[in-house]
Amino acid sequence: MDSLLIELAKLRRDANLTESIQDVDKILEQLEAARESIVQDPNSASFTLAKLQNPLKHGFDKVNEDLKRVHKGQSAYGRALDKNLPHKELPFDIDGLASRPALINRAISMHLLREGQFQVASTFLDEAQENPPQPSPMPGTPNFSEMDETEVPSLKSQELQDKFSNMYAILNELKAQNLHPAIEWARANSHELEKRGSNLEFELSKLQFVWLFLGPSVNGLPNDLNNGLSGALVYAQQHFQRFQARFLKDIQQLATAMAYSSNLKDSPYYRTFDIETAWDDVSTSFTREFCSLLGLSAESPLYLAATAGAIALPTLLKLYAIVKEKRTEWTTRSELPVEIALPKSMIFHAIFVCPVSKEQTTDQNPPMIMPCGHVVAKESLQRLSKGGKFKCPYCPGESILSQAREIIL
Ligand SMILES: [Zn+2]
After folding, report:
1. Ligand 1 centre and the CA of 335: distance in Å?
2. Count of CB atoms situated within 10 Å of the CB of 227
3. Which of 3, 118, 292, 333 sits a CA distance of 20 to 30 A from 182?
4. Where is the RING-Gid-type domain (predicted)?
């Protein structure tokens, strides 16, 4: 894999388009200059055009040469990929989703919309509507064909597009270090955000305070009374009132920090004013809250599913080979027979494995807590109790079945 990384570095270094772009820009400049001089003196047109011929030819040759280098780099990388990752046929005789093409199209459109690829999404939706996909369930895969494909809820694409373009407009402002549109949005939605226990509105306002506090040398805003310490103070007086009930301690700390303004670096509040990651952090929180108010997760589900699938693929291929070789069948329905180690960021639901039966709990066999506080799966509990009083397998506690309560993870 190391040799592949070396090839990738080479590709980035030698085969990027920077020079091509510069050379194309040069040609554009020459053309624009020629147009300008023709506009100023129309009589000079033929002379100007004649003069342009050689430099233009030279320019185009240069662009072609640049591109040759890029092609060369790309094919070298392609060869390295083939060598390092030899092509293996995937067993395509199983396609668990072949019976739900409309659902897949919906997931793709949704992904494009939430990534801000509005034009692509609209083309995709148009084409999908013109050529509605036909379900083609395969033998041995879950058959959803009885389900009506029209049941797939239609995507309110225009509405979603409007919302997401608003989100991207605000994110762009955040990138340009302008907090105002994000704060306005958070204020307009403060009721819903608060209901979710979100701190977003305060976090944004706090950053605005810090941003002003750090002054013109950091924030690049005009050096006047609305900036620096005085600007931060005015901002706090105008806007922090509404946060007092929930964030009094933070506000007190921000106020006390003012006393250290000349020597912030050595103050106990240094961390609050270290905003290296603050803009990225608020952008992430903003995206998460914005999506959650739309009833969506912060990460694209399609992206997550595809990434998790790519991680799981080697294990699943191995499993597939074993199942095929031993001619056994995959017997569990709602659970994979092997564990797929996914990164923490991809794990959304806590799972519970019963310490008695060693089985993962399910909706039908949920975890049950006994009065002593120990937890086992429902089926294990039923086996233990045999209807009467029984002793917990982990402590001397005794209980009866009806005292156990289901745990919702
Ligand atoms: Zn116990």
Report:
1. 28
2. 21
3. 118
4. 354-395
